Amino acid sequence: MKKFFFLLxxxxxxxxxxxxxxxxxxxxxxxxxxxxxxxxxxLRDAYASxxxxxxxxxxxxSFNSVDITKGVTIRGAGMGxxxxxxxxxxxxxxxxxxxxxxxVSERLTLEGIYNNHAIEVCGNFKxxxxxxxxxxxxxxxxxxxxxxxxxxxxxxxxxxxxxxxSSVSCVNCVINGTAVGSGNSSNYEFLNCIVRxxxxxxxxxxxxxxxxxxxxxHNGGNRLYDSAVAxxxxxxxxxxxxxxxxxxxxxxxxFKDVFKxxxxxxxxxxxxxxxxxxxxxxxxxDGTQVGIYGGNMPFxxxxxxxxxxxxxxxxxxxxxxxxxxxxxxxGAE
Length: 333
Fold this sequence. Notes:
By secondary structure, this protein is mainly beta. It is built from four helices and 27 strands. The chain has helices at 2-15, 42-49, 255-258, 276-281, and strands at 25-30, 33-38, 55-58, 61-64, 73-75, 90-93, 96-98, 109-111, 118-121, 124-126, 129-131, 134-140, 145-147, 149-152, 155-162, 167-171, 174-175, 178-180, 187-191, 194-196, 209-211, 214-216, 229-231, 234-236, 251-253, 307-313, 325-330. The strands form five sheets. Strands 2-1-3-5-8-11-14-16-19-21-23 form an eleven-stranded mixed sheet, sandwiched between helices. Strands 7, 9, 12, 15, 17, 18, 20, 22, 24 and 25 form a ten-stranded parallel sheet that branches. Strand 1 and strand 2 form a beta hairpin. The chain starts with a helix and ends with a strand. Residues 1-21 have low confidence and may be disordered.
C-alpha cells in the first residue's frame, strides 16, 4: 500500500507540473503503472483505459457516470461529508448500467461513492461488492441475474430490486425499500441492518433472513412469511410482524423506543443512532446493539483504503525549480 501511494503522489506531481489542479482527479492503477486524469470526465477517461482487475481512484467531486462492462475496482473519497475527516463525497452523476460478460472472472467493486440516479443491472452480475456507497435505486432489466452481491455499510435511499433466482447479502446497511422478481426464488440476507418495506409478507422479501436488524413497516397487519428467518430483530409498525416466526428472540417496539431522531422518513443526514436505552437492551446474537452500529463491523462512511480528498498543485514552479503540492489523503484507521 505504501509503494502504491508513493507512486500515486509522484504521478500527480509529474502530470500537473504545468498548471493548477484542484480536486477533480482520477487515477488508474494498471500493473503497477499509474495514469492520471482530470475534470468531470476523468472517470470515463480512466475507465476507457482500464482493463479487468485495474483500480480507479477518484477524488472528491462530481464525475460523469459510465456504463460498466469490466471487472474493475472504483474507489471514491466517501458517500458524504465527513466533518471530522474534512472530506467531501465522490459523486457519480447520472444513470449507469452494469453489464459484465460471464467470462470475466474479476469482480466489480464500488467503494465510497454517492449516486442519486438509477443503476441498472444487465446480464449475469456475479460476486460484486458495494462498500460504503449511497445509492438511490438499484434495478435490473428483464433478463438479468444478480448472484452473490455483497453490500457493506451502504445506504439505499429508495429501493433495491433484484430479479428471480438472485441473492444479495447486506451487512450493516440502511435499505429503504426492496423488491424481487416473481416466484419466491430469490433471497436477501440482512445482518445488522435497518430495512424498511411496505409488505414483508410479499414475494418482495418473504423468504429472506434477518439477524440483529430493525424492520420497519407502515402496514399494521403485515407479517413475515413462515419461510423467513429472523433472530434478535426489532419490528416497528406492525404488532404481527413476527407472528409466523417460531423463536422468541424478536421484539415489537415504537420509533421512540428505538431511535434518537429517526421516525421512518429517509434522509441522507440521518444517523440512525439508537437511544441509550436501546443500545444497552436491544442486543443482537453477539451481544452488541442491533442495527447498523452493532456486530463486528459497526457502520462507518470512511473508506477502507487511502483516498484522495484534496489535490492542489501550484500553477508553476518557484525560481529554484520547486513545485508546491498540497495533497490530503484519508482512510479508515
